[in-house]
Amino acid sequence: QVQLVESGGDLVQAGGSLRLSCAASGYIFSVNAMDWYRQAPGKQREWVASIPAGGSTNYADSVKGRFTISRDNAKKTVYLQMNCLKPEDTAVYYCHFQERITYMHYWGQGTQVTVSS
User: CB under 8 Å to 39, separation ≥6 — which residues?
Assistant: First the structure.
């Protein structure tokens, strides 16, 4: 059974930092790309960052230069280091991957990040 469990969300002041974690289980973590998405109140869920099984990372323009996605295949965990946080970064952050053979999408339950001004 595939599971994605996010953690690390918190209330932080503008300019602060947080590191989100997503622990994966139930599938071959190392061969699949992983993504972070976020959803702010009243808005659609939006893509934040991706890290492939191998190769370069990608970021939404709104977080480029401030957020860093990384992965530890031994721990089956993907991280999102968020620096220079802004109030507009306030959202529920979700871990996601699309299984590369079945193309099924999997989501975590989300972790709340709130940035106060």
Answer: 45, 46, 91, 92, 94, 110
Q: Model confidence over 15-52: pLDDT tens digits?
A: 999 999 999 998 888 888 999 999 999 999 999 999 99
Q: Are 34 and 71 in contact (CB under 8 A)?
A: yes
Which three-class secondary structure state does DSSP give residue 52? coil
With contact defined as beta carbons under 8 Å apart, do 91 and 111 qualify? no
Cα separation, 98 vs 104, whole angstroms: 5
Given a contact cutoff of 8 angstroms between Cβ atoms, the answer to whether 78 and 34 are in contact is yes
Q: How confident is the model at residue 105 (pLDDT cuts 50, 70, 90)?
A: very high
**Contact yes or no for 47/61 (Cβ under 8 A):** no
Q: What are phi and psi of 31, to 5 degrees?
A: -95, -5
